[in-house]
Structure prediction request, 389 residues.
Amino acid sequence: MTTEPRTTVVLPGPLPDHPTGTAILSGAHYTGPDIFAVEQRRIFGRGWVWAGFEHWLTEPGTVHPAEVGGPPLLLIRDHDDRIRVFHNACRHRGMALVHEPTTRNTRLRCEYHCWTYHLDGSLATAPLYRRRRDGGIGEEDRRRLGLIEVPSRCWAGMVFVDPDGSRADSFEDDLGPLLRRWDSVDFTRLHLAGERRFDIDANWKLVVENFLDFYHLPFVHPQVGPLAAALDVDDLALGETVIGAEYPSGAVGKAEKTDRPLPQFPGFPPERTRGQDLFCLFPNTLLILEADWLQVIGFHAVSPTRTVEHLAVFVDRAAATPEFAGTRKQLCDNLFHINEQDLPILTKLQTGRRSPAADTIALVPHWDQVTALFQHLVARRLADPTTTR
Prediction:
């Protein structure tokens, strides 16, 4: 007896029943420096955005520079083992303090006039401050001239920042739909299986749109499994800024990524162990979760035509033993290869955005509703300077 295919879930909008031939975002949105500059302020410069990984800060005294929305930042693990984020600028003349990741720091020193800062951001010394040999800085000025802290939160091995502080007290509200969906997973048990950096000649929005494009799987990634697995996908919009899909049988319907199973995350919902979640956490976090692994792509939008991705693969700490070393490597190699297959696609998509025809691209309602949600959100953020997450 033949089993009828399951009816998949397609979001009811925002696309109409038939393609209009008018792009939601024009070609200039993917190539123009002026639009990119506005995106840096209105999309990456406010609300919670990915800034890096906790494992970049391996021990107290570790400092890692990063850029989010343009301004340089410092990710620091202080001597209390707390991760904090500061603007990477000396309070005297604004010189960047750190240019490369460093470890075993006790203080940060500005090369210009040798002001130093404790790892909690407070000013330690400012030599010759009063223009004489014994002219140390007074306590009042010392308190006023510490590094400027940026609101930050850590979750699931990631470091998020709120660059303008407009949503500093709303992390749980803003990420709430995803936090609730994955609340049974103990992300403190994450173990890094592998990480790779990808330098991509494409606009950041194309990176997100390709991630949300489920249509291309059987054509670009045929090794992931049979056509039936690629078609078995449900659109999901958990909230305005949490959009993606669920493959209800993704973990078993797609091709195996390892020869042997890894230990699952304890508490993973039994009813979802066969599936795969795939979400964009707007604007720059791309997540895939199965019962035994988590893939995170966090990225920095460097220019209108360049994006730097950091892809990390995590497993449960029970899979961190030597017994599973080969399986962890196999998993990472497969996930890295899938990402590599997208690179020439992204380059060609970027090239096409220089054509006037890019203003007439036709998203199709059966496949592209989630992409349309993303594009509409970008358009709203660009249009409204007061919009926050």
